[in-house]
UniProtKB/TrEMBL annotation:
Signal peptide: none annotated. It comes from the Bacteria. One of its GO terms (molecular function) is beta-lactamase activity. It comes from Amnibacterium setariae. Residues 52-271 form the Beta-lactamase class A catalytic domain. Pfam families: Beta-lactamase2 (PF13354). InterPro entries: Beta-lactam/transpept-like, Beta-lactam_cat, Beta-lactam_class-A. This is Serine hydrolase. PANTHER family: BETA-LACTAMASE (PTHR35333), BETA-LACTAMASE-TYPE TRANSPEPTIDASE FOLD CONTAINING PROTEIN (PTHR35333:SF3). Keywords: Hydrolase.
């Protein structure tokens, strides 16, 4: 496990040094605690990968094995959302297109549509469900409508070589199925989320639509647990903080990619950890490590 150089946080006086703020000087967060937390996980057998960059300059603030390709569970659904948004912009589909769920789409775990009576929903409502609750049923219906090949082609057009949505969501994966829902590298995912936030993914309109969807995400259990935002209501800025993110959870996998804007600066980040999920304490340690990195991010943007 290797890390990029860590810059020590400069001390801040109680007065806040408003002159420095107006000059645009940044107060560097100290990511040493985050690196230490990931190192402990690696020593315990976990595979870890992380990257944090300044959104404006693109400068790497924190990097641990960010080139490594790891399972990212539902984080790869962001590629589906980009394809849906691009189709809306290209007028291949309209936001009012009704899509029916079929027996082959049914799957358990994440999402709320499986508990609702509506047999059909508009395309954009399904995209919102995917972003807000990582809805597996909505994901499968959208994938059936647009095709996995189109999502892969969209990822390739964005220059992604280590990041992909590999399959539909399945309750069980057989020998002929992809072993993971999605994979990715922290380097590529961080850059992708930075491009979405800056309006550079496909187009400004597509990026804006995907950003609006991602801002609905109710899962703030990982890195974003450090930001103290309301999981069910953080679309608007709260104490100067604005978040868009996508998370992924699977047995032995926790992954999160996102963008946090703050009163002083903004960052894009990805943290992925693959671990042996055999005892609850290991899972708790993973989530605590992700939160520790989130604390470093929060200190940087505030």
């Amino acid at each position: 496990m290797t890390a990029a150089p860590v810059e020590t946080r400069r001390s801040r006086s109680r007065s806040g040094d408003e002159h420095a703020r107006h000059r645009g000087d940044a107060v560097r967060a100290d990511f040493t605690d985050g690196f230490t937390a990931l190192a402990h996980l690696a020593l315990d057998g976990a595979q870890v990968s992380a990257r944090v960059i300044d959104l404006l300059s693109g400068k790497a603030l924190f990097s641990v094995d960010d080139h490594v390709v790891l399972p990212t569970a539902s984080v790869g659904k962001v590629l589906l959302l980009l394809e849906i948004a691009a189709r809306l912009e290209e007028q291949v589909n309209t936001r009012f297109d009704l899509l029916d769920r079929a027996p082959e789409d049914l799957v358990s775990d994440a999402g709320v549509w499986q508990y609702l009576h509506a047999p059909s929903l508009p395309l954009t409502d399904l995209a919102a469900l995917v972003a807000a609750t990582s809805d597996n049923l909505a994901t499968n219906v959208l994938l059936r409508a647009v095709g996995l090949d189109a999502v892969r082609a969209r990822a390739e057009s964005l220059g992604l070589k280590r990041t992909a949505l590999l399959d539909r969501v399945r309750d069980r994966r057989g020998p002929d199925d992809a072993p993971q829902l999605s994979v990715g590298s922290a380097a590529e995912l961080t850059t992708l989320f930075a491009r979405i936030a800056r309006g550079e993914a496909v187009s400004r309109a597509v990026s804006s639509r995907v950003s609006d969807w991602l801002a609905l995400n109710a899962d703030l259990s990982m890195v974003a647990s450090a930001f103290a935002l309301d999981p069910l209501s953080h679309v608007r800025s709260d104490h100067g903080l604005s978040l868009l993110n996508k998370t992924g959870s699977a047995p032995g996998v926790r992954s999160e990619a996102g963008v946090l804007r703050g009163p002083r600066s903004s960052v894009a980040y990805t943290v992925t950890i693959e671990f042996v999920d055999d005892v609850h304490t290991r899972r708790l340690a993973v989530l605590q490590a992700m939160r520790t990195i989130g604390i470093g991010i929060l200190e940087y943007v505030c």
